Amino acid sequence: MFTGIVEELGTVAGIDHGSASAVLRIEGPLVVSDATHGASIAVNGVCLTVTEHDGTGFTVDVMAETLERSSLGALAPGDRVNLERAMPADGRFGGHVVQGHVDGTATITARTPGDRWETVDFTLPPDLAAYVVEKGSITVDGVSLTVAHVGDDTFGVSLIPTTLDLTTLGHKGVGDVVNLEVDVIAKYVERLLNHRQEVAS
């Protein structure tokens, strides 16, 4: 489990594409400082398993489904990525419950600068719209954020200077694609209510 608090901006050092998979080499000295084989690290919000690591970075396998359902398939060497290690059992819960299971992708539609902050608007996939509410939590490229406003097919967030400086969201532009993970609690509530309705009928 993760909390959506990005620890480090990593860099894609290399990509080895297979017929239906890829191997990523990512530089991130902080997140590998205590890494072990099999450790979980979220890369732009996608939970991946460390297969190799050294003092400067790590390697992960990315399967076809992950490449298709997330933005990782579009990564290129030199791209920056948000990195977060899995939360330890005694760790501080800084964001919200993040599984690292991407529900879909969105596209940046607008960026509006403020005094020291910035509002960023995104498309909202129809199948995820029911889970996105104003002032609720959403994960964008692995960053735990609060929904500032939501429409039928769009939503927006406000980014503080720290988020702009320390995550990829400060550098992405209109048209760029990001990973989305909606609040898992909302999905469990929906499943529970649907199940009760099915039993009652």
Automatic annotation (TrEMBL):
The EC number(s) this enzyme carries: 2.5.1.9
Catalytic activity line of the entry: 2 6,7-dimethyl-8-(1-D-ribityl)lumazine + H(+) = 5-amino-6-(D-ribitylamino)uracil + riboflavin
Name recorded for this polypeptide: Riboflavin synthase
Record's function text: Catalyzes the dismutation of two molecules of 6,7-dimethyl-8-ribityllumazine, resulting in the formation of riboflavin and 5-amino-6-(D-ribitylamino)uracil.
Pathway the protein contributes to: Cofactor biosynthesis; riboflavin biosynthesis; riboflavin from 2-hydroxy-3-oxobutyl phosphate and 5-amino-6-(D-ribitylamino)uracil: step 2/2
Domain Lumazine-binding: 1-96, 97-193
Organism: Terrabacter terrae
Keywords carried by this UniProt record: Repeat, Riboflavin biosynthesis, Transferase
Signal peptide (residue range): none
Gene3D superfamilies listed in its UniProt record: 2.40.30.20
Enzyme class, UniProt record, top EC level: transferase
